[in-house]
Amino acid sequence: MRINPRTLSAAVFAMVLLAASAGCKKKIPVATAPPPSAPTSTTPPAAPPPPGVSAARINSFTAEPRSIERGQSATLRWSIANATEMSLDQGLGAVAANGTRQVFPSNTTTYTLTGRGPGGTDTRSVTVEVSSAPAPPPPPPSRGPTINGIDLLTREAQDAYFDYDKSELREDARQAMTRDAELLKRIFAADPSFSVAIEGHCDERGSAEYNLGLGDRRATAAKEFLVQLGVPADRLTTISYGKDRPVCTEENEACYQRNRRAHLSPAR
Amino acid sequence: MLGVGALLIPGQEIRGIISKGEKPAIAVPDFRGAGEAQRFMDTFNATLWDQLAGSGVLKMVAKSYYPLEVPQQPQDFKPPTTLGSTAPAAPGRRGDAPKPQSNGPWLTDWSNPPVSANDLAFGYTAVQNGQLVLRGWLYNLAQPDPQSAQAIGKIYFGTLDAEGAKKVAREFAADILQFFGAKSLAGTKIYFVSDRSGAKEIWSMDYDGSNQRELTHYKSVSTMPTTSADGRLFAFTTYAQGNPKIMVYSADTDRRLPFINPVSSAVETPEFTPDGHRIMFAASLEGWVQICIADTNGGGMRRISHVRAIEVSPKINPKNANEVVFISGRGGSEQLWRMNIDGGDLEMLTSGQGYVANPSWSPSGQLVAFAWTLGYEPGNYNIFVMDVASRKYVQLTHGSGRNENPWWAPDGVHIVFSSKQRQVTQLYSMLADGTGVQQLTTQGNNIQPVWSKATN
After folding, report:
1. Which CATH architecture group holds A53-131?
2. What top-level class would CATH report for the domain A146-266?
């Protein structure tokens, strides 16, 4: 009898869901594309310096980046020779011969650097393009205090843990569910539209078929206990995930115990 | 690791097949092809051998024992001449019978030791009008001459490529297996669950693992497939709409059919009645998953069990629609139980030890295959087969890993099952005595195989 070689491992392909943005009533402004390589500095034709006297000369004057979004900064950088007075306009005042300056223009701004010397004056300008940042998407439709309920539930609800092949609530599970009952009452009082799904889970050792029933049983046991403590039954649903949604996959009792649980989640 | 099972399986159905002495021994020498046809003969010979060997009903005589002279057609057989007074006696000890002199291939070359075959398959292929033509014969070697030995002598046509070579090999093998009374699995289909596309979906493949195809695309969790006896319907459990529910599909169109689920937080493990008119399943009612029955559209739902225990996986005897086996936790740990379809005459079939899952009836309605942790830690299932009348059982796999989800093939000789080895679960087929294990899947994790009849 021929036995095929066993494949030792097989790839499990992760599914990537690309969430498309929900339709909004307002059109989101599109970010402006940078202008097509606008000149950043203009150099007036330099007059020939008087013979024998050196004229002030701007060797370089740049802005980096030349194009920013509002709220961002650009760095001006320059180098001037033979000048005795050096200044930037736009209220920036006197500067050194070589230097940098961080600027936060809120609109497109042209900065002019002037150097004066005994032999003459040189000026050069650089423009920082400022585009407005794309508007954020409009806030989701208001759901009132629901957000709060989801946060509270996610942060504070405790799982009830079970013994293998059992759906009876242990003492530690009853304590956890007692605290959960108070939490649920607070959340439900704050938000009349909030409801909670009680998930039942199992460790991986039982059969898939029986575990679906066992998870259902665990969720039901948790629900019955919460209802006994005064949580309204019509705000609670149950769903069994059997062993299909484990929180861990190691083959040891610590992991098995973490998976044998009833878990509270916001109902969809 | 998978092991070889014990050979004493109860039940008339497979007794003759598994006791090795009773299997006919067949010799299948390599066929050759004329001209262009020879290019595809490796494929042909491998396919023919695998089909016959995989059937489980024949003892394949190893090729190393075969004589050098292999017949390709009936006229190649030449009776040996018995040496008499006309020729000088061959050297030999005094008292030896005169040795026959070979004139070519002869029946006894194959029936005598070391080959000791009962039957011989031979033939050849050639190209005719652009087609691959196989001429195949099966000879019963107990007969005295080629004329009376011929059991099969047929011509098969295929395309002149590897697929054509496989096709004619399969058809010839099917004829040989039919001659020996074995049912062919050709055309049968296996439904199963795979996560290879990122979510658990229902898939199907041919009986030999070829042609694997994704049938559902819910990107949720879709599991526990089953099929109707005629192979025209399949059903499964899915989370596609929130809580687990049953969906029913047409196998002909792969389209969903209407099925109204009961109001319940969990509906699972569907099973068609043998007549295909109703569906049994397990549904959470009053806090416990219980056995129910309804029409195939979900109407006329009736609860069968009323017990504070989890009960799943109802499986109806294909030869006796009144008899149901199922898994119940009513005695403590989940065990294999049987009952009448109305819920009466309950009895536990397994011993109460360990945990039991996944019952599947043999086509004869005598045997049930199931997974049991007997002798192992919880979760470490092995495949067992039980004769329901006597409750005698045999263990087919002997691994410390998970061997579960057994399902009988329509031929009653094979079982498909899942096995978790090195963190990955794949599907395998084996003979019902635990031998002849063949791997069917390699991609992702694959579970819950269901062997469906051919629908055409």
Report:
1. Sandwich (2.60)
2. alpha beta
Does an H or E element contain A181, and which?
helix A171-190
Question: Based on the number of CB atoms within 10 Å of its own CB, is B182 exposed (0-12), middle (13-18) or buried (19 or more)?
Answer: buried
The pLDDT value given to residue A141: 56
- B443 near A CB under 8 A: yes
Amino acid (1-letter code) at residue A103: V
**CB distance B401 to B420 below 8 Å:** yes
Which of B310, B373, B404 has the highest number of chain A CBs within 10 A, making it the mutation to test binding with A?
B310
Name the residue with higher pLDDT: A265 or B21: A265
CB–CB contact A207 B197 (8 Å): no
User: Which chain B residue shows the shortest CA-CA distance from A237?
Assistant: B265
- Is B311 touching A (CB cutoff 8 A)? yes
CA distance B180 to B133: 24
| Reported pTM | 0.70
Q: What is the mean pLDDT of chain B?
A: 90
Hey, what are A49's tokens?
């310096």
**Nearest neighbour of B265 by CB, restricted to A205, A240, A268:** A240
User: A38 by DSSP, 3-state: which?
Assistant: coil
Of B265, B268, B329, the CB nearest to A239: B265
Going from N- to C-terminal start, the domains of chain B cover: 25-83+101-179, 189-452
Q: Which residues of A touch B50 (CB under 8 A)?
A: 2
Q: How many helices (H) and strands (E) does chain A have?
A: 4, 13
Do the two domains B25-83+101-179 and B189-452 of this chain adopt the same fold?
A: no
* Residue B268 banded pLDDT, cuts 50, 70, 90: very high
pLDDT mean over B9-18: 41
Least confident of A73-82, B239-248, B255-264: A73-82
Distances (CA, A) of B442 to A4, A38, B130, B155, B247: 11, 59, 36, 36, 27
Q: Among candidates B149, B186, B178, B167, which has minimal Cα distance to B57?
A: B178
Sign of the Cα torsion B285, B290, B293, B297 reads: positive
Q: Is the pLDDT of residue B41 over 70?
A: yes
Alpha-carbon distances, residue A173 vs A234, B312, B420 (angstroms):
22, 26, 32
Instruction: Look up the ipTM and state it.
Output: 0.81
| Contacting residues of B for A12, CB less than 8 Å apart | 195-196, 198, 444-445
Integer Cα distance of A129 and B194 in angstroms:
55
Structure tokens at B290: 């219980």
Q: Taking 80 as the threshold, does the pLDDT of residue B376 lie above it? A: yes
Residue of A nearest to B327 (CA): A210
B142 burial level (CB within 10 Å; 0-12, 13-18, 19+): exposed
The predicted structure's pLDDT at residue B11: 41
What 3-state class would DSSP assign to B332?
coil
pLDDT at B144 over 50: yes
Nearest 5°: CA angle at A54, between A51 and A56? Answer: 135
List, as one string, the DSSP characters of A139-158.
PPPP-TTHHHHHHHHHHH--
Q: Domain map of chain A by residue range?
A: 53-131, 146-266
Phi, psi angles (nearest 5°) of residue A220: -65, -40
CATH superfamily for domain B25-83+101-179: TolB, N-terminal domain (3.40.50.10070)
Most confident of A92-96, B155-159, B429-433: B155-159
Which CATH code fits B189-452?
2.120.10.30
Inter-CA distances, B19 with B16, B24, B140, B393, B399, Å:
6, 11, 21, 17, 23
